[in-house]
Amino acid sequence: MLETIAVVLIILWLVGMVSSYTMGGLIHLLLVIAIVVILIRVIQGRRV
């Protein structure tokens, strides 16, 4: 579930960058959270 949320956040970030519509630093904060979640999952070695 966390991986799905991370993917959605990354897609939303990319859409924001392409359309030049970013909600301040919020979308970048969401991207950082998504990357951190993915890194934690990779480091822990968990597989769904």
Mean of all residue-level pLDDT scores: 75
Helix proportion range: over 70%
What's the total number of strands? 0
Largest sheet: none
What general outline do the C-alpha atoms trace?
A: elongated
Q: Element order, helices and strands? A: HH
How much of the polypeptide forms β-strand, as a percent range? Answer: under 5%
Low-confidence stretches: none
Care to describe what's here?
- The protein contains 2 helices and no strands.
- α1 runs antiparallel to α2.
- The protein has helices at residues 2-18, 26-44.
- Helices cover 75% and strands 0% of the residues.
- The protein has 48 residues and is an all-alpha fold.
- The chain is elongated, with a radius of gyration of 12 Å.
- It has one domain (2-44).
- The longest helix is centred in the last third of the chain and has 19 residues, at 26-44.
- The N and C termini lie close together (9 Å).
Summarize the structure.
Helix content is 75%, strand content 0%.
